[in-house]
Known about the structure:
It is a single chain. The chain is α+β, with helices and mostly antiparallel strands and 695 residues long. It has four helices and 50 strands. A six-stranded antiparallel beta sheet has the order 3-2-13-12-9-10, with no helix packed on it. It has a five-stranded mixed beta sheet with strand order 7-1-6-8-11, with no helix packed on it. A five-stranded mixed beta sheet has the order 15-21-20-17-18, with no helix packed on it. A hairpin with a 7-residue loop joins strand 2 and strand 3. The N terminus is likely disordered.
Amino acid sequence: MRVKNKTKGVTLSVLAILFIGVVVLLFGLLGSGGATTASGDSITNLYNIYFDYSYYRGIYESSCTNLYESETHVLSSKELQADEVLRKHSISFQVYGEYYNSHTMVLENDDYLCSNIVTLKTNSMYDRDRFEVTNSAGTVVGTSASGNTYKLSGLSDGIYFVTYTGVSEWKEETNIRDHPRAVKIVCTFQFQVDTSAPTISGASTSTTGKYVNDTFTVTASDSASGAKTVYMKSPNNSTFYSTGSTKATVSKGSANGLYTFYAEDKSGNKSGYYYVNFDDTPPTMTCTGASFGANTNASFIVTADDNLGNTTLYIKIDSGDWIANSSGFAVTNTADDAKYYFYAEDACGNRTSEMWVEFGAELSGEFIKSDTDNSVYFTWDRPSWTATLDGAAYTKGTWIRTEGEHTIKLSSKTKSAVYPYTIDHYYIESVEKPTCTTEGYLQYDCIQCGNTYTNYSIEETGHYYVASTTVATCTSGGYTIYTCTRCGDNYTDNYTNPLGHNYEATYYPATCTDFGKTVFTCQVCGSGYHETDGTYPTGHNYNNTVVTAPTCTTDGLRRSTCESCGHTFDTKISANGHNYNITESSSAKGKVTRTYTCTVCHHSYKQELGDQYEEVTNYVEYLFEQYEPYMWWVLLASAGVWSIVIGVMIAIAHKNEEKEKAKKMIINYVIGLVVIAVIVVACPFLIRGIAALVT
């Protein structure tokens, strides 16, 4: 199946080449350079556009200087000569963007295309068409190569100026010579692009970016086609409505909440959403646990709330500064005695009136006694209260250790209270035990002021010695130590002399690795100092034994053992490898086969030696069998290429009026076709003959 598909593809390709060659050849034989006529596209969704034009005639395009006809601001030109057969037609232009409506209309000078991809189109019948587009700065933004349609992309917003040039050139045949003729038309028009959405001022792109509490206006603007209208959606409304203007105004007293806007320009571009939070109602404040404008000794909480949220509560204590807080503030029973002022303000600037609550409580403090002595410290609840100790400033929780009478005075901003307290000595009893040589006593120490006194009443105990005896050894003497178990006092007595060593000799003969020696050992303490007799080690005496014999493919193992001490170690015996001989040889169909056999293990394998010349010949024959069906297609493809080459050359000769040279080229063309046919047909037989000679 793949061969069939491949053949079909080759067939189509060759026929295409042959067809092109024949067309070019006929064109060259005819020697004509006739103009082509572009067929109109079937697009109907176009804008017709006004243009200015000037029409020129001359011998050549470059000499078309004399003005023949011109018009300004027309949708279609007069009928003008277009080519050598004096055909006349009127020219018009259309323009459309990437997206367009389904009907045709006229694009006025103040209209905009809301697309940065624009297509220019003309119904020109001229041989060559060329569009050149410049922006408002005079910079060329695009030039077409040729054709009735030109597409531009990536255009910025603004105005663009288009110059279209259409040209036709031909020769008028006469009895004397051919006369060159040319016509040219130059048309100019413009179009505008607006792809940018309008913007809105007086609002925010964030739902929380704009808060107002008075009449406000949002305005739409667009730098290109201009704003068309503003659309608005009121709070608690689900639909937008057009204001019919480029502005939208919300008056004070309107519904509070989030207003949403968007704008549309004259090109149909729409903006994103813009927002304004409108709130002309002040927030509310609530006091829980107390009442505004009254006194309290209990804790209370002040909170603020607003219909749009985002409320800030402000607090001032007595004559201090206002401090911004969240929407809630708590005054606990440990707070400072003071007058607390409050007001709230929402994000739109609406503010409540100032309210106050006066906070105060009865003074209350207490002494806390230490668990280890008579010292105390004084404490109270409210951080705003202060205290003095015996007339000096006192820090809450500081220990009072000095014995005697003390007075604490606790004060707030409005009142004070006095707390007396007396601290006595706090003695700790300790026992000084008697020793073997001194008396014992009781001691009493005041840990607050350091005062102390003692009471002697315990007699000394005397020494109590215990004996410990150390016996004599081979190298050291013996003795007895007497130690008092109460105080550790000691003395030594009953000394004895060392016993001395009792050695016994043992002889050890030389071994494979050690010298011969005599060892002397004390029979009492076990210590020893050995002596060698000068006999050297005998060294190992190994016997070798083959544990595993090697084969052609595997290693063997050899073990060595010392006859004297039995020490052993193993070494590897490398494999012997095969020893092959040729044991058989045969030949069949030009191929030789040999058999190789190992003389030791009898392993064997075969080797085939092929005929190289015959293989080459067979491969060549195989290739020609595969590709012989395509030889005729090669012939046709070669003929097509040859036709293209000769056709171009004949066309050039006709243009240069070299008729004799053109006739010779036709003869050469026929000869070339014959030579190509002979080569393609004879090539397979020639190669087969060479292959036959080689084999």
